[in-house]
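Section 5.1 Outputs to date
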Amino acid sequence: MIDRTDNNTDQITLAEIFDEFEFLGDSEAQMDYLIDLGLDLPKLPAEEKTELNRVHGCQSNVWMLTDFDNDVNSELHLQAESDAMIVNGLIAILLAAYQEKRPKEILDVEIHKIFDRLGLDRQLSPQRKNGLNGMVKRIREAAMVKLSQEG
């Protein structure tokens, strides 16, 4: 279960990320910004860094918690951390895309279009793309489970 007392209410939005990537223009500056985004992520408690929470398919270690409210709104509270700086930046983008969304909204997010628009599809190695797909799969599966419980 995620400790919501540590939620960052000043979470960056996709619009802000798009604007910054466009402003920076070149891929090196964009990757530096991506790393900076990851540095601002809250850390996962050590006890949550378990095999059960590990995302498989990632080149680096990634731990992810997906937790939904139990009320009718069922918003996602996502928390994740990696031991790789660039992956933490990717997690920050996933947070901007999915945090506090309802299961149906999560399934409607076209995450690959977001990463295409940012140009990250060209900048990420195949291993990083595998890891990204593993994280997205975990989030989508959690949304599908929650949706099936509500229906």
